[in-house]
Amino acid sequence: MARPTSKDVARAAGVSQAAVSLVLGDKWRGRVSGTTADRVREAARHLGYRPNLAARNLRLGRTRTALLVVPALTNDFFARVYTGAARKAAEHDFGVVLYPSPEGLGPAKDPFASARAALDGVIASSMAARTLTALHGADLPLVMLDSDPTDPTAGAHVNLDVADGMRQITEHLLALGHRHFLHLAADIDSWTFAARARAIQDTLHAAPDTTLRTAPAPLSTTYSRAAATQALTAPGSRPTAVICDGDTIAAGACKAARRLGLRVPEDLSVTGFDDLALATAVDPELTTVHLPAERVGERGMEALTTLLDGHTPTGTALPTQLVIRDSTAPPPS
Amino acid sequence: MARPTSKDVARAAGVSQAAVSLVLGDKWRGRVSGTTADRVREAARHLGYRPNLAARNLRLGRTRTALLVVPALTNDFFARVYTGAARKAAEHDFGVVLYPSPEGLGPAKDPFASARAALDGVIASSMAARTLTALHGADLPLVMLDSDPTDPTAGAHVNLDVADGMRQITEHLLALGHRHFLHLAADIDSWTFAARARAIQDTLHAAPDTTLRTAPAPLSTTYSRAAATQALTAPGSRPTAVICDGDTIAAGACKAARRLGLRVPEDLSVTGFDDLALATAVDPELTTVHLPAERVGERGMEALTTLLDGHTPTGTALPTQLVIRDSTAPPPS
DNA sequence: CCCTGGAAGTTTTACGTATAACGTCGCCTC
DNA sequence: GAGGCGACGTTATACGTAAAACTTCCAGGG
Question: Which domains can be identified in chain B, with CATH numbers?
Answer without folding.
Answer: 6-51 (1.10.260), 65-160+294-315 (3.40.50.2300), 162-291 (3.40.50.2300)
